[in-house]
Amino acid sequence: MADVNRGDRPLSPHLSIYRPQMTSISSILTRITGNALIVAVVLIVWWLLAASVGPEYFATADAVLTSWFGDLVLTMSLWAIWYHYLAGLRHLYFDAGKGLELPTAERLGWVCVIGSVVLTVITIAIV
User: What is the domain range of residue 32?
Assistant: First the structure.
């Protein structure tokens, strides 16, 4: 084994000095929204199963789903669906070999965030 002087090696950047970039934030947000949608699916499946079990159990599930917590989860899930959809389109664009320049990729990340908020508000206004 070679004798290596470990004291002269440069240190890797630490999270405390790393500045997050829009490209990394949008990638992380895509993963978070994809996993967070599972919460909404579980809540809706529970509501549907409760409807098949009986009126008392359905009343409990319906009370949770129509409460402020259920409204919050479903509204955030609607935003997550729109964000995940736009991020998927962005990745298809990347897969075609386009938009990979850093300014364009950053701009597309902002389009996903702002576009998902706008589409969520439009969807809520329509429904």
Answer: 23-126
Residues in the chain: 127
**How many domains would you assign to the chain?**
1
Q: What is the pTM of this model?
A: 0.82
Answer left, alpha or beta for residue 68, where phi above 0 means left and psi between -120 and 50 means alpha: alpha
In a domain, 4, yes or no: no
In this prediction, residue 116 carries a pLDDT of 97
- Residue identified by tokens 């850093």 is 102
**Using 50, 70 and 90 to split pLDDT, how confident is the model at 17?**
confident
Report the CATH number that the domain containing residue 63 is assigned in CATH. 1.20.1300.10
Whether 116 contacts 33, CB under 8 Å: no
Q: Give residue 81's region: left, alpha or beta (phi > 0; psi -120 to 50).
A: alpha
